[in-house]
LysR family transcriptional regulator
Amino acid sequence: MPSPETADDEVDAAGLLGTLLACPPEMLDVSLDQLRTLAVVHTTGTAQRAARALGREQSSVQKQLDNLNRTATRLVGEALVVKQGRGKDFLFTPSGEELVALATDTLRSWTDSLHRSRRRVGSTVTFGTTEFTVEFLGAVWPGLRADFERRDVHLNIEHVRTRDLWRKLDAKKVDLVCGSFAAETGRPAELDYDFLEWHRERVALLTNLTTRELPDTPIAAARLPGLPLLAPTAGLLAQFLGRWYGPDYRGTLDVIADIDSLNYGLNLLTTELLYGCMLTTERVADAALEGRLPGRGLRKIALANDYEPALEIVTGIFARKGERERYAEDHPLNLLWKAFAEATPTRSVLATLPG
């Protein structure tokens, strides 16, 4: 005699099978491509804008909407989307809104599952890098290319801004990321990630002020607030200013412009649209002076050693803590990590955040 648990399992299986077999044929004819089109139309507002986003003819998008409307009318007695007149966004009915939400969740879930499967079997590995750390990947890639190509492993490279490093890694948008963060000078990194330290460097000022206005001597912490400064709106260098002068550092410093990208600030100085200083890394400052970045006519000035706390930029490779241990040694994620570990000028550091 079967146990109660076995009987319940058989009932559940029978119920699930019945539900699957009872799906209306019209519903089964709806494709994921049609659902994606519906969601894109909902996001863009019109068939014309959706067609542009999808790289298709408007007539093709409209045909899919018409087919979905006919199917929905037969199934529930209501169309999904209604035209409101020339130039106006489409109106989505309650049934349409519900299906868009279902389509979006389904497509996102399938895509995330696909990425997880690719990561697990090692057919794809995604590496995130900032604009200024892509050279680190370039240093190790030649030694891995042949093996990756032989095994048909796809290396996906994604540009990541410093401010988004942890969010991208935590959300599993990237598997490894190369980037930088602010750390106290001489202290080990404290991060809740596996970490390979590549190098450390200080920050410096780039300026187009004359030597009479600003001599070539290190800038003390008390002197910086008196200088006209192009200040970052967010990111790594903003962390330095915030830790030195507090969260309201813009009220303390003489900020003459907010900049959200390095090149924008460099061009403001080199074109002499503004006269002042810009905080940057020593490597970037050197690249500007050597002509590898915009920097004609600029000077590099060091900062004094009286800033509290004493900070430096730490650059390296990050992975989610413990994830690599779940994969075989020849998994692409571990092969990349090993290549970086062998190439890094400093030894591997496994960093953890207390608590």
User: Anything to note?
Assistant: The chain is about 45% helix and 20% strand. The chain has three domains: 4-116, 122-200+313-351, 203-302. The domain at 4-116 is CATH 1.10.10.10 (Arc Repressor Mutant, subunit A). The chain has a mean pLDDT of 87.
